[in-house]
């Protein structure tokens, strides 16, 4: 993994709502965290040694930016319905392309199996279907947002 790939991952992580991200393959290991510095130092002192040095210094500035953005979680409490969660980690797309209409919008009626969102993981586009018939009451992610396993994508009533 080269430095440009690492910088690209850091930028995507910074813009996402993820709190932690780790990547490991045969020779490379990366860990990003937006948690408070004291928690990182308490929980992961050994793993910081295994992390490549270009990543470790950049974690601190990312943490300060992320501390200011907890508002979307509060807004989702008011909406009704069941949350459709992400089955994998990847980038969420709300439409098939930049010039295409969104798969669903708030207030749309959906049928079981209808595509709600696409999640790109490892260059594979994974359609996320509606688990039941209903009405979309809330869209919990933005277009091209990095999502983690279990993150709410859409709320259906």
Count of alpha and pi helical runs: 5
Strand order of the largest sheet: 3-10-8-5
Cα radius of gyration in angstroms: 17 Å
Overall mean confidence score, pLDDT: 76
Q: β content, as a range? A: 25-35%
For the termini, the CA-CA separation is 43 Å
- Coarse structural class: alpha+beta
Shape: elongated
- Specify the biggest β-sheet: 4 strands, antiparallel
**Which stretches are poorly predicted, pLDDT < 50 over at least 5 residues?**
37-53, 55-77
Oligomeric form: single chain
Number of strands: 10
Helix content: 25-40%
Order of helices and strands: HEEHHHHEEEEEEEE
Summarize the structure.
With 157 residues, the protein is an alpha+beta fold. The protein has helices at residues 3-15, 37-43, 45-50, 56-66, 71-76; strands spanning 20-24, 29-33, 82-85, 90-93, 109-110, 115-121, 124-129, 134-139, 145-147, 152-156.
């Amino acid at each position: 993994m080269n430095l440009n790939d690492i910088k690209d991952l850091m930028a995507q992580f910074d813009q996402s709502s993820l709190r932690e991200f780790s990547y490991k393959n045969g020779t490379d290991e990366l860990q990003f965290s937006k948690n408070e510095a004291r928690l990182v130092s308490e929980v992961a002192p050994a793993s910081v040694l295994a992390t490549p040095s270009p990543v470790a210094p950049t974690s601190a500035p990312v943490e300060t930016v992320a501390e200011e953005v907890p508002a979307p979680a509060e807004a989702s409490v008011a909406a009704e319905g069941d949350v459709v969660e992400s089955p994998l980690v990847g980038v969420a797309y709300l439409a098939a392309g930049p010039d295409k209409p969104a798969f669903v919008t708030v207030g749309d009626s959906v049928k079981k199996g209808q595509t709600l969102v696409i999640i790109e993981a490892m260059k594979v586009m994974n359609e996320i279907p509606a688990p039941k018939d209903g009405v979309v009451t809330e869209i919990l992610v933005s277009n091209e947002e990095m999502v983690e396993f279990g993150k709410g994508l859409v709320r259906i009533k």
